[in-house]
Amino acid sequence: MTPPAHFLASWLVAAAGGAGSRRDRIIVTLAGVLPDLDGLGYGIDWLAERLGRATHLYDWHHLLFHNLGTALACTAAAFLAGARRVRTALLAALAFHLHLAMDLVGSRGPDGSWDVPYLLPFSSAWRLVAPFQWDLDSWQNRVIGLALLATACLVARRKGCSFLEVFSARLDAALVRLLRRAPKPAAEADREAD
Length: 194
Fold this sequence. Notes:
By secondary structure, this protein is mainly α. The protein is built from eight helices and no strands. α1 packs parallel to α6 (139-159) and α4 (68-81) runs antiparallel to α5. It is globular and about 60 Å long. The chain starts with a helix and ends with a helix.
């Protein structure tokens, strides 16, 4: 899956899971996108290639941070940094593992299926592999991405905070104001009428 899909899914875990404060929601959201830090090598490899150099940093994608060792470190950091320590740590672990699950089903690259070396750095004996995996740029990922965005907007309208809170409290407030001015979906309007 794409980083924006991971970001929205992780923020939804935080918002729906009851991460009480903006800080806790940010911690959980970051835990859900953290595994893709090992994908930053793609940009460096691309730039190096244009400069006539060869780097292979992207070869480390799905190796460095898509594993149990990083999940444990991330969960511990969330516990230490969160206001509601246990809840924040559990939600961070859930967001992290949701990232791995999303990658298992929706991240096949041009070179074939990506597996997840889950037990690293403790063992390389077991790798998670989905018997099916659709392409990273597939219609399935686009539909899921749009569904996550629509759901995040509905949650933001209802809860009074949005995924933009990760970047800026002002942007967050502006988006919530905009969403609350938008016409309500028919089902929501019917519930309020009752």
